[in-house]
Amino acid sequence: MNRWEKIFENLSNICRAERNYLLSRITSFGVGGEAKVAIFPRTVAELERAMSVIRDSELPHFVIGRGTNLLVADSGYNGIVIFVDGGFDGVERLSDNIWTFGAGALMSAAVKKAAEQGFGGLEELAGIPGSVGGCAKMNASAYGKSFSDNIVFLNVLTRRGIGKISADEIGADYRRTAIENDVIILSAGVSLEEKPPAEIDGRIMEFNRMRVRSQPIDQKSAGCIFKNPEGMHAGALIDEAGLKGKSVGGAMVSQKHANFIINRGKATASDIVELIRYVKNEVMKKFGVELELEVIPLGFDGEIL
């Protein structure tokens, strides 16, 4: 029995596990090869036991929420992926204006559930397709609102066990945090405001209308490819460089929003990477601005940029 067979057997005794799991099935880009092993814990106890086995094995591993900000190599990922989704999607009011959003909950679903009970403050983020855990880790933002603005604490799993990170310890910055990669977010405690549900719904609808007008939400993408350079907009730079509609294979810079690369149906991860590199180089040549990747690459040998 080789080490992958052994780890699969051990993990299968803890929770649902699959061999050679095709990641293109779950990424919003719709590309990517297989992970050696995928696990789907449904409880904190299962996750804690599984992570103990994985860490003892010293095999590479990666935590996935909804796969909306992920670019997986065509060759796949030579490691274990841990899905923190369906078993971790509870949304409930703790006390007063503090709510807990499970890491596996869709951000849109969490915001809307709180809205039904008259609690708002995150309407700008209601259209983000990712999970609460991913939004917390990456400090998702939209229309001037960052998720970290409302986070009070995070419940997490670390090598030392279950713990809590305060807002001050998150180290939030523009679309990033100081949360280490081996820290798994279980849920987020967020501070919301009491408002009439109709007012919250109206704001959610308006922000979502703005998204429909400005973003290719009906096509396969991973959201914004690049972070906005300080004082500038990556999409505007790419547009001014004349790159809307530029394509490589099945990948194309969106005509609707230049900071989106879309999969027109048959794109490979290699197509997307080649287009990312081309866009980055053209913007550097024309404006002297170095664009920083926002999507997370997985399974590539070395840096893609």
Task: Please give a structural write-up.
With 305 residues, the protein is an alpha+beta fold. It contains 7 helices and 18 strands.
List the helices and strands and how they pair.
Layout: H1 3-12, E1 16-22, E2 34-40, H2 44-57, E3 61-64, E4 70-72, E5 77-83, E6 91-95, E7 98-102, H3 107-116, E8 119-120, H4 132-138, E9 141-142, E10 145-146, E11 151-158, E12 161-166, E13 184-191, E14 193-194, H5 197-214, H6 234-240, E15 247-248, E16 251-253, E17 261-263, H7 269-287, E18 296-298
What are the defining features of this structure?
five-stranded antiparallel beta sheet, 305 residues, globular, alpha+beta, 7 helices
Order of helices and strands: HEEHEEEEEHEHEEEEEEHHEEEHE
Note the overall shape. Answer: globular
- Percentage of residues in strands: 25-35%
Distance between the termini: 38 Å
Protein structure class:
alpha+beta
